[in-house]
Amino acid sequence: MSASRRFRIAVFASGGGSNLGALLERFPPGNEREVALVVSDRTDAGALARAGAARVPTRVVRPRDFATPEEYGLQLVRLLRDNEIDLIVLAGFLRKVPAAVVEAFPLRIVNVHPALLP
């Protein structure tokens, strides 16, 4: 990353977006490190409204809109690359992250979870 380019974060969320709210407070749009995109698999996710209120671009990408899981994963990768994303934060994202995304963003995916997992 060049010194003049911002560090761009994509947040994946399926729910209300409380974790997204905290991320937006810490990494607001226009900051050197910014939440630059919010991605959801649900059109009714509250996180989309939170992002919109903060003027962060949003995209809904639903697996059922694609013929195969592979196509879904490739669409996510294209979206992330088109938006020059540096880091993906999973903040209440309730889907398995496609292999194509994991392969395209090695060591650049963080899962924020509000409780210990079993």
Which labels suit this protein?
alpha/beta; 22% strand; five-stranded parallel beta sheet; 118 residues; 4 helices
Structure commentary:
The chain has helices at 18-26, 46-53, 69-82, 99-104, and strands spanning 7-12, 33-40, 58-60, 87-91, 109-112. It is of the alpha/beta class. It has a five-stranded parallel β-sheet with strand order 3-2-1-4-5, covered by helices on one side. The longest helix has 14 residues, at 69-82. It is globular, with a radius of gyration of 14 Å. The N and C termini lie far apart (37 Å). The mean pLDDT is 93.
Task: Please specify the SSE layout and strand pairing.
Blueprint: E1 7-12, H1 18-26, E2 33-40, H2 46-53, E3 58-60, H3 69-82, E4 87-91, H4 99-104, E5 109-112
Parallel strand pairs: 1-2, 1-4, 2-3, 4-5
Describe the sheet with the most strands. 5 strands, parallel
- Estimated radius of gyration: 14 Å
Q: Distance N terminus to C terminus?
A: 37 Å
The largest sheet has its strands arranged as: 3-2-1-4-5
Contiguous runs where pLDDT drops below 50 for at least 5 residues: none
Number of helices: 4
| Class derived from helix and strand content | alpha/beta
SSE string, helices as H and strands as E: EHEHEHEHE
